[in-house]
Amino acid sequence: xxxxxxxxxxxxxxxxxxxxxxxxxxxxxxxxxxxxxxxxxxxxxxxxxxxxxxxxxxxxxxxxxxxxxxxxxxxxxxxxxxxxxxxxxxxxxxxxxxxxxxxxxxxxxxxxxxxxxxxxxxxxxxxxxxxxxxxxxxxxxxxxxxxxxxxxxxxxxxxxxxxxxxxxxxxxxxxxxxxxxxxxxxxxxxxxxxxxxxxxxxxxxxxxxxxxxxxxxxxxxxxxxxxxxxxxxxxxxxxxxxxxxxxxxxxxxxxxxxxxxxxxxxxxxxxxxxxxxxxxxxxxxxxxxxxxxxxxxxxxxxxxxxxxxxxxxxxxxxxxx
Length: 321
What we know:
Elements: E1 2-5, H1 10-16, E2 22-26, E3 48-51, H2 53-56, E4 63-66, H3 71-79, E5 89-93, E6 116-118, H4 121-126, E7 134-136, E8 152-158, H5 162-165, H6 174-178, E9 183-187, H7 193-197, E10 204-208, H8 212-219, E11 222-227, H9 236-244, E12 248-251, H10 256-259, E13 265-268, H11 271-283, H12 285-302, H13 305-320
Parallel strand pairs: 1-2, 1-4, 2-3, 4-5, 5-6, 6-7, 8-9, 8-11, 9-10, 11-12, 12-13
Helix pairs in contact: 9-12, 11-12
């Protein structure tokens, strides 16, 4: 099967392109948001092929995977075929709704020809999807392997654009958590975070623009993983940290309460409880290691790559029949 999909979310797409299909990844000269092409920070197979907008009209596309509302018009223009009408299509909703939650209407709510695929049951619950057919395909993650050492009495955080996104990503909570355990923050556009929060070495350090392999290698030596996000879909970095073997300290928001079992970490809406969990992990490395191993077992069971790809194959069989 030949699948057209834009490179929008690098980690998610890394798992998606591991299937037994050909994946057409749009690329433009500026490699902007509508033409990023293949990833530079992740390992993708050769079956993920770059294709220019000019060449797409001649490409035999079996299904279009949409991820942003404007891709409906973009695909119609580049392919010369309308998604959902002239060529089968599905729309992946990666995000929690914004605006009048829980009454937020999905952009595809008035259509019944493009199925909506949510990445979490929380998202499916909170979006008003109207007449659109909906299903859930939970995340699947390429297993980075068990690498945990926890030798550094610090905690890791992975977040992109924490200054711009602010309360959404729980950036305002970091000083309270950094007082319990020194934090290493990884992600895109994190360089200005210490100045923004007014704290720095040794309580807060930032690590920007590492590729996935380098980031995983560093995170595995931290004692715990912190997920302070208030309102976003389930972060793949959280699942990757669990697979690496880190115990988790996380806000009990969105899908986290489903993803992290009690024995795998400390999950709470009380920031003081999270801070105390961090302190205990620093004091008790054996407890931290045990929790991390149980988290890895849970993540392998629920978020395996094989289950994820099999679920997507069922979606494709349904939409192209």
